[in-house]
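Name: FAD-dependent monooxygenase
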Amino acid sequence: MRIAIAGGGLGGLTLARILRRHDIDAVVYEREADRFARTQGGLLDLHPESGQHALEKAGLTDRFRAEARPEGEEHRILDPAGRILVHHRPEPGDFSGRPEIDRGVLRDILLDSLPGNAVAWRHRIVEATPRLGGGFRLTFDDGRGADCDVLVGADGARSVVRPLLTDAPLSAVAVLAELTAHDADRRHPELAALVGPGNLWCVGANRILAAQHQGSGDLRVGVTLRADERHLHSYGSKRALLEQFDGWAPGLTALIEAADGPPVVRRIEAMPAGTRWAHRPGLTLVGDAAHLMPPVGEGANQAMLDGAELAAAFATDPGSAIKTYEEAMFARIGPIAAMSARVQAMMLSPTAADEIVHFFAPTR
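Structure predicted for FAD-dependent monooxygenase:
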Protein backbone atom coordinates (compact mmCIF):
# COMPACT_ATOMS: atom_id res chain seq x y z
CA MET A 1 0.00 0.00 0.00
CA ARG A 2 1.52 3.28 -1.16
CA ILE A 3 0.32 6.24 0.94
CA ALA A 4 0.92 9.77 -0.33
CA ILE A 5 0.50 12.71 2.03
CA ALA A 6 0.05 16.07 0.32
CA GLY A 7 1.59 18.73 2.58
CA GLY A 8 4.32 18.76 5.21
CA GLY A 9 2.57 20.73 7.93
CA LEU A 10 1.94 19.49 11.45
CA GLY A 11 -0.97 17.23 10.54
CA GLY A 12 0.76 15.54 7.62
CA LEU A 13 4.03 15.05 9.51
CA THR A 14 2.24 13.64 12.57
CA LEU A 15 0.46 11.15 10.31
CA ALA A 16 3.71 10.13 8.62
CA ARG A 17 5.56 9.70 11.93
CA ILE A 18 2.91 7.49 13.54
CA LEU A 19 2.47 5.41 10.40
CA ARG A 20 6.22 4.75 10.45
CA ARG A 21 5.96 3.63 14.08
CA HIS A 22 3.50 1.00 12.84
CA ASP A 23 5.86 -0.01 9.99
CA ILE A 24 3.62 1.61 7.38
CA ASP A 25 5.51 3.64 4.80
CA ALA A 26 4.23 6.96 3.51
CA VAL A 27 5.75 9.78 1.47
CA VAL A 28 5.05 13.41 2.33
CA TYR A 29 5.03 15.64 -0.76
CA GLU A 30 5.88 19.20 0.26
CA ARG A 31 5.98 22.19 -2.10
CA GLU A 32 8.60 24.12 -0.11
CA ALA A 33 12.28 23.76 -1.04
CA ASP A 34 13.34 22.62 2.44
CA ARG A 35 12.50 23.11 6.09
CA PHE A 36 14.19 26.53 6.08
CA ALA A 37 12.22 27.95 3.14
CA ARG A 38 10.04 30.19 5.31
CA THR A 39 9.21 31.00 8.90
CA GLN A 40 6.52 28.77 10.34
CA GLY A 41 4.48 31.21 12.41
CA GLY A 42 4.17 32.00 16.10
CA LEU A 43 3.50 30.13 19.30
CA LEU A 44 1.16 27.18 19.66
CA ASP A 45 -0.47 26.06 22.87
CA LEU A 46 -0.68 22.27 22.70
CA HIS A 47 -3.74 20.82 24.40
CA PRO A 48 -3.42 17.61 26.45
CA GLU A 49 -6.36 15.89 24.75
CA SER A 50 -5.28 16.64 21.18
CA GLY A 51 -1.83 18.01 20.28
CA GLN A 52 -0.03 16.49 23.27
CA HIS A 53 -1.94 13.22 22.84
CA ALA A 54 -0.78 13.03 19.23
CA LEU A 55 2.84 13.61 20.26
CA GLU A 56 2.53 10.84 22.83
CA LYS A 57 1.34 8.45 20.10
CA ALA A 58 4.28 9.67 18.00
CA GLY A 59 6.71 8.86 20.81
CA LEU A 60 7.86 12.47 20.99
CA THR A 61 6.67 13.62 24.41
CA ASP A 62 10.18 13.91 25.84
CA ARG A 63 11.36 15.99 22.88
CA PHE A 64 8.32 18.22 23.23
CA ARG A 65 8.88 18.79 26.94
CA ALA A 66 12.52 19.61 26.34
CA GLU A 67 11.53 22.41 23.94
CA ALA A 68 8.15 23.62 25.21
CA ARG A 69 7.71 26.58 27.54
CA PRO A 70 5.02 26.13 30.20
CA GLU A 71 5.58 29.75 31.23
CA GLY A 72 4.44 30.73 27.73
CA GLU A 73 0.90 29.82 28.76
CA GLU A 74 0.75 33.13 30.66
CA HIS A 75 -1.95 35.24 29.06
CA ARG A 76 -2.73 38.92 29.58
CA ILE A 77 -5.84 40.67 28.26
CA LEU A 78 -5.93 44.48 28.35
CA ASP A 79 -8.38 47.16 27.29
CA PRO A 80 -7.40 50.06 24.95
CA ALA A 81 -6.32 52.16 27.92
CA GLY A 82 -3.87 49.46 29.02
CA ARG A 83 -5.90 48.27 32.02
CA ILE A 84 -5.56 44.55 32.79
CA LEU A 85 -8.84 42.69 32.36
CA VAL A 86 -7.59 39.10 32.72
CA HIS A 87 -4.17 37.80 33.76
CA HIS A 88 -3.70 34.03 33.68
CA ARG A 89 -0.48 32.77 35.30
CA PRO A 90 0.40 29.07 34.97
CA GLU A 91 2.20 27.16 37.68
CA PRO A 92 5.98 27.15 37.03
CA GLY A 93 7.05 24.05 35.10
CA ASP A 94 3.48 22.73 34.83
CA PHE A 95 2.96 20.62 31.69
CA SER A 96 -0.57 19.56 32.67
CA GLY A 97 -2.11 22.62 31.00
CA ARG A 98 -1.41 23.95 27.52
CA PRO A 99 2.32 24.75 27.32
CA GLU A 100 3.46 26.86 24.40
CA ILE A 101 5.99 25.90 21.76
CA ASP A 102 7.21 27.76 18.68
CA ARG A 103 5.52 26.31 15.60
CA GLY A 104 8.85 26.02 13.78
CA VAL A 105 10.42 24.12 16.67
CA LEU A 106 7.50 21.69 16.77
CA ARG A 107 7.74 21.11 13.02
CA ASP A 108 11.47 20.42 13.37
CA ILE A 109 10.77 17.83 16.09
CA LEU A 110 8.45 16.00 13.71
CA LEU A 111 10.82 16.30 10.75
CA ASP A 112 13.75 15.03 12.80
CA SER A 113 11.72 11.95 13.75
CA LEU A 114 11.36 10.87 10.10
CA PRO A 115 13.94 9.25 7.82
CA GLY A 116 15.37 11.50 5.15
CA ASN A 117 13.40 9.91 2.33
CA ALA A 118 10.03 10.39 4.05
CA VAL A 119 9.63 13.98 2.81
CA ALA A 120 9.91 14.84 -0.88
CA TRP A 121 10.70 18.57 -0.97
CA ARG A 122 9.93 20.73 -4.03
CA HIS A 123 6.92 18.58 -4.90
CA ARG A 124 3.83 20.75 -5.31
CA ILE A 125 0.86 18.66 -6.39
CA VAL A 126 -1.20 20.38 -9.08
CA GLU A 127 -3.45 17.48 -10.03
CA ALA A 128 -4.56 14.11 -8.67
CA THR A 129 -6.19 11.86 -11.27
CA PRO A 130 -8.05 8.67 -10.30
CA ARG A 131 -6.53 5.52 -11.80
CA LEU A 132 -8.44 2.57 -13.18
CA GLY A 133 -8.53 -0.04 -10.46
CA GLY A 134 -8.05 2.49 -7.64
CA GLY A 135 -5.53 4.96 -6.36
CA PHE A 136 -4.32 8.18 -7.95
CA ARG A 137 -1.78 9.52 -10.36
CA LEU A 138 -0.17 12.64 -8.91
CA THR A 139 1.17 15.39 -11.15
CA PHE A 140 3.62 17.96 -9.78
CA ASP A 141 4.19 21.50 -10.97
CA ASP A 142 7.42 20.60 -12.78
CA GLY A 143 5.76 17.84 -14.78
CA ARG A 144 6.96 14.92 -12.70
CA GLY A 145 4.47 12.32 -11.52
CA ALA A 146 3.95 9.59 -8.94
CA ASP A 147 1.36 6.92 -8.20
CA CYS A 148 -0.28 6.11 -4.88
CA ASP A 149 -2.95 3.78 -3.53
CA VAL A 150 -4.08 6.22 -0.84
CA LEU A 151 -3.98 10.02 -1.00
CA VAL A 152 -4.29 12.15 2.14
CA GLY A 153 -4.78 15.87 1.68
CA ALA A 154 -2.87 17.66 4.41
CA ASP A 155 -2.25 20.68 2.22
CA GLY A 156 -3.92 23.41 4.20
CA ALA A 157 -6.47 26.12 3.55
CA ARG A 158 -6.05 26.17 -0.23
CA SER A 159 -5.96 22.40 -0.55
CA VAL A 160 -5.58 20.95 -4.04
CA VAL A 161 -6.94 17.63 -2.78
CA ARG A 162 -10.11 18.97 -1.10
CA PRO A 163 -12.11 19.55 -4.33
CA LEU A 164 -11.93 15.81 -5.01
CA LEU A 165 -14.20 15.33 -1.98
CA THR A 166 -16.14 18.52 -1.35
CA ASP A 167 -16.92 21.89 -2.88
CA ALA A 168 -17.42 23.50 0.56
CA PRO A 169 -16.85 27.25 0.15
CA LEU A 170 -14.40 29.36 2.10
CA SER A 171 -15.66 32.59 3.66
CA ALA A 172 -13.62 35.49 5.03
CA VAL A 173 -13.95 35.93 8.80
CA ALA A 174 -11.21 38.49 9.53
CA VAL A 175 -8.20 40.41 8.25
CA LEU A 176 -4.89 39.68 9.95
CA ALA A 177 -1.78 41.86 9.71
CA GLU A 178 1.38 40.33 11.17
CA LEU A 179 4.63 42.03 12.15
CA THR A 180 7.75 41.08 14.09
CA ALA A 181 9.90 43.05 16.52
CA HIS A 182 13.18 41.15 16.43
CA ASP A 183 15.37 40.67 19.51
CA ALA A 184 12.81 42.52 21.63
CA ASP A 185 14.29 41.31 24.92
CA ARG A 186 17.35 43.45 24.19
CA ARG A 187 16.02 46.14 21.84
CA HIS A 188 12.58 46.75 23.37
CA PRO A 189 12.68 45.48 26.97
CA GLU A 190 9.66 47.56 27.99
CA LEU A 191 7.53 45.89 25.31
CA ALA A 192 8.88 42.45 26.19
CA ALA A 193 7.84 43.10 29.79
CA LEU A 194 4.39 44.29 28.67
CA VAL A 195 3.77 41.10 26.70
CA GLY A 196 5.25 38.84 29.36
CA PRO A 197 6.50 35.32 28.60
CA GLY A 198 3.39 34.30 26.68
CA ASN A 199 0.48 36.05 24.97
CA LEU A 200 -0.95 39.56 25.17
CA TRP A 201 -4.35 40.60 23.80
CA CYS A 202 -5.39 44.24 23.72
CA VAL A 203 -9.11 44.18 22.98
CA GLY A 204 -11.26 47.03 21.68
CA ALA A 205 -14.43 47.40 19.64
CA ASN A 206 -14.16 45.23 16.50
CA ARG A 207 -10.36 44.94 16.70
CA ILE A 208 -7.56 43.22 18.57
CA LEU A 209 -3.89 44.10 18.92
CA ALA A 210 -2.02 40.98 20.06
CA ALA A 211 1.56 39.90 20.65
CA GLN A 212 3.39 36.67 21.41
CA HIS A 213 6.77 36.32 23.10
CA GLN A 214 8.66 33.72 21.15
CA GLY A 215 11.46 31.57 22.50
CA SER A 216 13.92 33.43 20.26
CA GLY A 217 13.22 36.69 22.10
CA ASP A 218 11.25 38.12 19.16
CA LEU A 219 7.78 39.59 19.60
CA ARG A 220 5.28 38.46 16.99
CA VAL A 221 2.62 41.17 16.69
CA GLY A 222 -0.80 40.65 15.14
CA VAL A 223 -3.61 43.06 14.30
CA THR A 224 -6.99 41.40 13.73
CA LEU A 225 -9.82 43.38 12.14
CA ARG A 226 -13.22 42.56 10.75
CA ALA A 227 -13.31 41.21 7.22
CA ASP A 228 -14.46 43.88 4.77
CA GLU A 229 -14.29 44.70 1.08
CA ARG A 230 -11.20 46.86 1.28
CA HIS A 231 -8.09 45.72 -0.56
CA LEU A 232 -5.50 44.16 1.71
CA HIS A 233 -2.90 46.72 0.64
CA SER A 234 -4.92 49.38 2.48
CA TYR A 235 -3.54 47.81 5.68
CA GLY A 236 -0.07 47.32 4.24
CA SER A 237 1.84 49.91 6.29
CA LYS A 238 2.41 50.52 9.95
CA ARG A 239 0.86 53.98 9.55
CA ALA A 240 -2.35 52.45 8.17
CA LEU A 241 -2.53 50.02 11.09
CA LEU A 242 -1.90 52.74 13.66
CA GLU A 243 -4.89 54.63 12.27
CA GLN A 244 -7.06 51.71 13.35
CA PHE A 245 -6.02 52.29 16.97
CA ASP A 246 -6.46 56.04 17.27
CA GLY A 247 -6.97 56.94 20.94
CA TRP A 248 -5.42 53.75 22.31
CA ALA A 249 -2.69 53.97 24.93
CA PRO A 250 0.67 54.79 23.29
CA GLY A 251 2.29 52.02 25.31
CA LEU A 252 0.15 49.51 23.40
CA THR A 253 0.45 50.94 19.90
CA ALA A 254 4.22 51.00 20.45
CA LEU A 255 4.03 47.27 19.59
CA ILE A 256 3.23 48.24 16.00
CA GLU A 257 5.78 51.06 15.86
CA ALA A 258 8.59 48.82 17.13
CA ALA A 259 8.08 46.15 14.48
CA ASP A 260 10.75 45.67 11.84
CA GLY A 261 9.48 46.07 8.30
CA PRO A 262 5.96 46.41 6.91
CA PRO A 263 3.08 44.14 7.94
CA VAL A 264 2.20 40.95 6.11
CA VAL A 265 -1.57 41.09 5.55
CA ARG A 266 -3.95 38.27 4.67
CA ARG A 267 -7.60 37.37 4.93
CA ILE A 268 -8.54 34.72 7.46
CA GLU A 269 -11.00 32.25 5.98
CA ALA A 270 -13.04 29.34 7.29
CA MET A 271 -15.12 26.47 5.99
CA PRO A 272 -18.74 26.11 7.14
CA ALA A 273 -18.96 24.37 10.51
CA GLY A 274 -20.31 20.87 10.07
CA THR A 275 -18.78 20.31 6.62
CA ARG A 276 -18.86 16.64 5.61
CA TRP A 277 -18.33 14.68 2.44
CA ALA A 278 -19.32 11.28 1.09
CA HIS A 279 -16.76 8.56 1.76
CA ARG A 280 -14.50 7.82 -1.19
CA PRO A 281 -12.07 4.87 -1.03
CA GLY A 282 -8.39 5.76 -1.00
CA LEU A 283 -8.90 9.47 -0.35
CA THR A 284 -9.31 11.68 2.72
CA LEU A 285 -8.30 14.99 4.34
CA VAL A 286 -6.71 16.11 7.61
CA GLY A 287 -6.20 19.47 9.29
CA ASP A 288 -7.11 22.73 7.54
CA ALA A 289 -7.79 20.85 4.32
CA ALA A 290 -10.59 19.01 6.14
CA HIS A 291 -11.96 21.64 8.52
CA LEU A 292 -10.51 25.12 8.13
CA MET A 293 -11.50 27.08 11.25
CA PRO A 294 -10.83 30.56 12.63
CA PRO A 295 -7.42 30.67 14.39
CA VAL A 296 -8.55 30.58 18.02
CA GLY A 297 -6.30 27.79 19.30
CA GLU A 298 -7.71 24.59 17.82
CA GLY A 299 -6.40 24.32 14.25
CA ALA A 300 -2.94 22.83 14.83
CA ASN A 301 -4.13 20.71 17.74
CA GLN A 302 -6.94 19.15 15.73
CA ALA A 303 -4.69 18.63 12.69
CA MET A 304 -2.23 16.65 14.79
CA LEU A 305 -5.04 14.63 16.36
CA ASP A 306 -6.40 13.93 12.86
CA GLY A 307 -3.01 12.54 11.89
CA ALA A 308 -2.79 10.39 15.00
CA GLU A 309 -6.30 8.97 14.63
CA LEU A 310 -5.94 8.25 10.91
CA ALA A 311 -2.61 6.48 11.50
CA ALA A 312 -4.16 4.39 14.29
CA ALA A 313 -7.03 3.42 12.00
CA PHE A 314 -4.61 2.26 9.27
CA ALA A 315 -2.65 0.24 11.83
CA THR A 316 -5.85 -1.45 13.06
CA ASP A 317 -7.69 -2.19 9.81
CA PRO A 318 -6.34 -0.67 6.57
CA GLY A 319 -9.44 -1.63 4.60
CA SER A 320 -11.83 0.42 6.72
CA ALA A 321 -9.33 2.98 8.04
CA ILE A 322 -10.51 6.02 6.11
CA LYS A 323 -14.20 5.49 6.80
CA THR A 324 -13.54 4.83 10.50
CA TYR A 325 -11.38 7.95 10.77
CA GLU A 326 -13.82 10.20 8.91
CA GLU A 327 -16.87 9.22 10.96
CA ALA A 328 -15.02 9.91 14.21
CA MET A 329 -13.43 13.12 12.89
CA PHE A 330 -16.76 14.58 11.70
CA ALA A 331 -18.33 13.94 15.11
CA ARG A 332 -15.35 15.47 16.94
CA ILE A 333 -14.84 18.51 14.74
CA GLY A 334 -18.45 19.68 14.40
CA PRO A 335 -18.78 21.19 17.91
CA ILE A 336 -15.19 22.48 17.87
CA ALA A 337 -15.69 24.30 14.56
CA ALA A 338 -18.94 25.83 15.81
CA MET A 339 -17.25 26.98 19.02
CA SER A 340 -14.33 28.46 17.08
CA ALA A 341 -16.74 30.46 14.91
CA ARG A 342 -18.50 31.82 18.01
CA VAL A 343 -15.22 32.81 19.66
CA GLN A 344 -13.99 34.52 16.48
CA ALA A 345 -17.22 36.53 16.22
CA MET A 346 -17.04 37.42 19.91
CA MET A 347 -13.44 38.65 19.62
CA LEU A 348 -14.35 41.13 16.88
CA SER A 349 -17.65 42.34 18.32
CA PRO A 350 -18.34 45.89 19.58
CA THR A 351 -18.51 44.49 23.14
CA ALA A 352 -15.54 42.13 22.78
CA ALA A 353 -13.81 43.17 26.00
CA ASP A 354 -16.79 42.36 28.21
CA GLU A 355 -17.52 39.12 26.39
CA ILE A 356 -13.91 37.92 26.50
CA VAL A 357 -13.62 38.69 30.21
CA HIS A 358 -16.76 36.66 30.83
CA PHE A 359 -15.42 33.84 28.64
CA PHE A 360 -12.07 33.60 30.45
CA ALA A 361 -13.21 34.61 33.93
CA PRO A 362 -16.95 33.80 34.14
CA THR A 363 -17.14 34.34 37.90
CA ARG A 364 -15.96 37.96 37.71
